[in-house]
Amino acid sequence: MNTKVQNEWDNNVDTGDQYKIPWLDLDMDSVREFAEGKLSGFHKPTGKIDIPMLTKIRKILYGDLKGKKVLCLASGGGQQSAVFALLGADVTVADLSQKQLNVDITAANHYGYKIKTVQCDMNDLSVFDAETFDIVYQPVSIVFVPDVLPVYKEVYRVLKSGGIYSVGHINPATYPADLDNGIDGWDGIGYRIASPYIGGPLRVDENGNENMTTGEIDGEYRHLFIDMFCNLTEAEFNIKYVYEDERNFVDCTLLQRYINIISTK
């Protein structure tokens, strides 16, 4: 287990990172609307949506969860676990940071459901038996591993036959829009892409500028589409659906930054 990375994520909890603050204000009407594909999310920007395919995908992921075993992978923080548990799933959260797992326990105590938490690395799920889970849900956390294939293989092993794996990725085309390196990003007219379109680690140069080519590795990795899709099929998954972060359907000023891939075993 990578102690340095673990400590960094523990510190994120202490500093109040937005992804480590539990959702303690969920109401069941909103949760059901979200699960049915009627509501874009729980926090701003949010609103009603009417996208038939997204409605179908939401029902596949969140419909009829009673008694289903769900693994929220590298997902500590008391957010996604709360949604699945409130909809009736038997939820386990696996995360590198015990402090993040403690936040999931806080959410469980708040709402009164039971939850299991396991401290482990997403690359090594040996603590779980093969074919344990009906659904493995992974938010945009796979960006913190250099190679996605070991994670995919571990997920495939712990999924039941016919099980669903939902994994979030950052769209690689949007990285230059966010890199603070003086050559990419908003130029007053549009978003410029000047740095090489390559996968691999994000780096920070001697001037503190984030880029893809020079300086120290900062812990996040840019995965290209070939990394995502070819490695899913290499791990023997069947890719079923690909969709953008649904927040983009509500507020068009947001970049279509996240993509989600749903695969079955």
Quick overview:
This protein is of the alpha/beta class and about 260 residues long. It is built from 8 helices and 12 strands.
Shape: globular
Query: What oligomeric arrangement do these chains adopt?
Result: single chain
Report the sheet-strand fraction.
Answer: 15-25%
Percent of residues in helices comes to: 25-40%
Uncertain regions spanning at least 5 consecutive residues = 248-255
Class by alpha and beta content = alpha/beta
SSE pattern, N- to C-terminal: HHHEHEHEEHEHEEEEEHEE
The largest sheet is: 7 strands, mixed
Strand segment tally: 12
- How many whole angstroms does the radius of gyration measure? 18 Å
Give me the number of helical elements.
Answer: 8
- Please list the strands of the largest sheet in the order they lie side by side: 3-2-1-4-5-12-11
**Average of pLDDT:** 87
Distance between the termini: 27 Å
